[in-house]
Request: fold
Amino acid sequence: MSIYRNAVWLMKGLQEYTKCGYEAAAKHFVPADLEVNLSGRSFLITGANSGIGKATAQEIANRGGTVHMVCRNKGRADAAKDEIVERSKNENVHVHIVDMSSIRQVWEFAQSFSQNNTVHVLINNAGCMVNQRELTEESLEKNFATNTLGMYVLTSALIPALKKAEDPRVVTVSSGGMLTQKLNVDDLQVEKGTFDGTMVYAQNKRQQVILTERWASQHKDVHFSSMHPGWADTPAVQSSMPSFHAKMQSRLRTEAMGADTVVWLAASLPASKQPSGLFFQDRKAVATHLPLASSRSTAQEEEKLVAALEELALKFKP
Reply:
């Protein structure tokens, strides 16, 4: 990450990504956008038992949507489901136990789910930030497996099912941190140099934005978007970035604020009228690169990323 990118991004974040930034943007929101009845529509949300994923699931359930919570921990998932049902009075909330870092599990789930359920909207929210290099049981770097490869497999596998639904959408919860990163296709699993979990996470989030753009160009009948939720006070931020959380706690957004644009992209009519493949912040499409940041990748680099992901995905396909 260049010193320039880091400095510009931090200034931008302090102005836009905080609670105050959200409150300023929200003055221009149209409340009617989310006055919608989602009865009859099915939403699959990964990482839905806490943080932004749970807040998103709650808002979808409140509006009558069928919610499929994809979670790793059954105890936490069941507790979150019970809370969502109690608050929404919506019984159409279902739990699926899947470890998104296990690529074989993701394949098996996607194949089974698409055979037995309808899906209108996929919300790729699950993510992790492991601060020391750690390998999964499939010998994959854990951040990459969860944030990029697992998301790639789930989305790719569900695209045929999404195309059968009315108004299908894919929303990927990325991060403004990706603005600090230029795609690096030569070390996807961080086998060289010093391991910095924050930078690895940001690189994964850059990969998600690129994948969203490519899917949008390839699958015109599905609406794809990625987004930045801002700096929100979530359990993941507390555990993965304790010093940042301690310094910024009073300025962080609530989980509901972080989820607002996710819900807007997943459920509102105005969002569906936006061009597919864009990156959003506070219900507005925003740039995917900082000015003069030299963070753009070539078409060849992006093709190399997809080829590497496809090779790894097929390696673990049942």
Remarks:
- The chain has a mean pLDDT of 96.
- The radius of gyration is 18 Å.
- The longest helix spans residues 142-163.
